[in-house]
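User: I'm putting together notes for a lab meeting next week and I want to include a structural view of one of the chains we've been expressing. I don't have a solved structure, so I'd like a prediction I can at least talk through. The sequence is below, exactly as it appears in our construct file.
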Amino acid sequence: MLDTAKHRLKRCIPFLLLPFVIVGTPSAQTIEAPLSDQLQAGGDEVHYSVTISNTGVGDASDVIFSAMGDVNLTLSGAGTPFSLGTPPSPTVTASSLANVPSEIPTAITVTGTGFAGGAPNVRFTAAAGSPFLGGTASFLDVAGVLMNATTVTCTTPRAGVSLAQAATIQVRLTGGLNPTSAGNLITFDPPTITSLDPTMVESEIPDLVTITGTGFGSATGLCTVTLSAAGTPFSLGMHPSGAVVGTIENPTTITFGTPVLGVQADLNADVTLDFATGASVTSAAALLIKTPTVVSSAPATVPSEIPTTITITGTGFAGGTPTVRFINVGSPFLGGTATTVTATGVVLVNATTITCTTPRAGVSANTGARIEVTLSGGLTPISAGNIITFDALTITSLSPNMVESEIPQVVTITGTGFGSASGTCNVTLSGAPATTPFSLGTQPLLTVLGTNRESNDDHVHVAHIGHPGGPERRRDP
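Assistant: Thanks for the context. Below is the predicted structure for the 477-residue chain, given as structure tokens.
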């Protein structure tokens, strides 16, 4: 058994604020008390005492202590069983969180060994790419807090990744040592989209959409929301996408308002979120965009010569006053000269209802028509088929049904769809084909002026038949 041995630390070998270690060499001796507990300052010399026994060899870490200034070390004394050794290097071994959201700064604890000195910085280095500082840097330092020799805390930076990105962690100690993890200790996870509400919007009607997901970042932040699809379906076929600003309500919620999109056919749009850091996430075919439709007319049948108020039902009507047209490709309108006639008095009532007044169509037979609505945004929905019929005029009877050739007489024609009271029309009398029975056998036809005199739109009073003078005057019954 060796008794207490005294040795002196003299100014011989320089050290500056670095740890050092006394390593016992004989196999039968260990140091039972840490030397750092027994250091004593004494003028130009620093004395320490150790007790050595032969009970076995201890770990060198049992005798590690740190110098607080310039210290010179000399081991003296006959048969001294010690030598000057190198202390172990600091290490970084773990992170309290293996995964963190890339858009949400998160507090973590970094563990390791040998942490010392003042407040360190903590460096995150991406395994690939440059996800930090808006996509310009592959690593980024943040301030750390030294808790003890094995623990440093810090807050992770925003990483701006579109896919999960692994990173190493380095603790940059104030003494100049920079221990780094042996491999990737932490992964920055990108934001995710889990659902949209609603999942369907009208192309021409602005709507508020809520996106639910994870890792969106701090409340009151902003991001870009882009709706896209194959081709150029937006803005009346001019653009492949439409973008608006989204509001980050909280880490799991983003809201945005849909603009007027100008989509001419129903489509399922991809929804992409782009963040200021460079992070981006897409949910494919997540939002159904419906184009406006024209479904029905009430009434479905109108007289061709009597302007009639109708109600058009459909979906997605929006904007200012639309234009309504009635279409038949066979050119039945306006005496067979036009494929369309345009309504008057158009009123956009709501997103599903338009009212208007039908024009006089000028058809000779009942004519079906499709209805086309041109909205102020430029879209032109049209009914899938004929949803309204313009009924031609009908004649049901004449009274009297016999007149004298040379005696002018008033004839009343009864029928339907003759038009408004006090209107006029031409009434033509004709004989057998290829004959000229009128005007002493010189004319095939005789045309006179007819006047609609009844309020129920069903009668025409005819004058001037067979007489070149004025109409016979009589008092209506």
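A couple of points you could mention at the meeting. Confidence is low (pLDDT under 50) at residues 1-85, 461-477. The chain has one helix and 38 strands.

User: Perfect, that's what I needed.
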